[in-house]
Amino acid sequence: MGGIKLLMPFGESTLFETVIAAVRRSTVSEVVVVLGASAEEVRRKISFAQIKVVMNENFRDGMGTSLRCGVAHASGDAALVVLADQPLLKTETIDHLIHEYREKTPQIAIPVYRGFRGNPVLLDRSVFPEILELSGDIGCRAIFGGHAQNILKVPVDDVGVLLDIDSPLDLEKLRDRAAHSIESADLSGREIGEGPQLVIVGAERTGKTLAALGRLMNFSVTIIDPFLNAQEAPGVDRILDSLDFSQISPDSFVVIATGGRFDEEAVEQALSVGARYIALVANKRRAREVLNRVRADPNKLSMVRAKAGIDIGAEGPEEIALSIMAEIIAERHRTG
Fold first, then answer.
1. Is residue 80 helix, strand or coil?
2. pTM of the prediction?
3. Does 252 lie in the same domain as 131?
């Protein structure tokens, strides 16, 4: 980020203070802040009055260590894991998650915007022991697979649950969204064309490259992503901003390339419509974790190509996209 992300200006304060203010306006009974890198400078510049501050000395070992620190110092019946770089998160969303948790008593509650899973995640105290066992650079998702029947997905009207900051460009985009209507982005769909259907979930570089290759191969291309606008995907037949496969044909070739954001939900929906081809773009460990958390018949789940593409020694998004397109064409010719 070129500096300390938490202290970067956002609106009339800093990124971190904006998030803390939203949490403090909510009905939470206690706020625990876990600090790691640049902790002393953050503490000098931000007031933590009436906030419990915990220092994670092992922050270099990954986010799992910070989760452990936070949960270990949480005194309530449940804990909300709030990301420090989600400045558009609404206080009303936090309160709605708490209300739904109290009403329906799940072990885990997750906000969902237009079918896309977001943050913060609410954890019942019964799962705290599992969080305290986490290590390395893994988050709450690591425990989801063992609680599939006790996860509540809570629909929310808050795009802020999907928006965090990983780069200076992300920060500029969020500042722009905060200054203007969040719904002002052009997310309108286009009419679907003729020809075999290629459906890409996610608009990362691999997905965009695959879309361009699909058009060259005379596929009708749909991209599903909550933030993509038409100018960013020239030539694409259709853009959908909701993770809703009711508009997807069973004869489609589906590639899930979300960078880990919405993988489980996309796999479940692709399986539910009986898509002709389903591929997940992820490394071996991540793919295994995703498939372990998917709620689906094991026989159907075996149809998911968890190593997407043919083996050409692909490196980088463009070569990965080429290997996937080669596999799709082979499958298209094989099944007619």
1. strand
2. 0.81
3. no
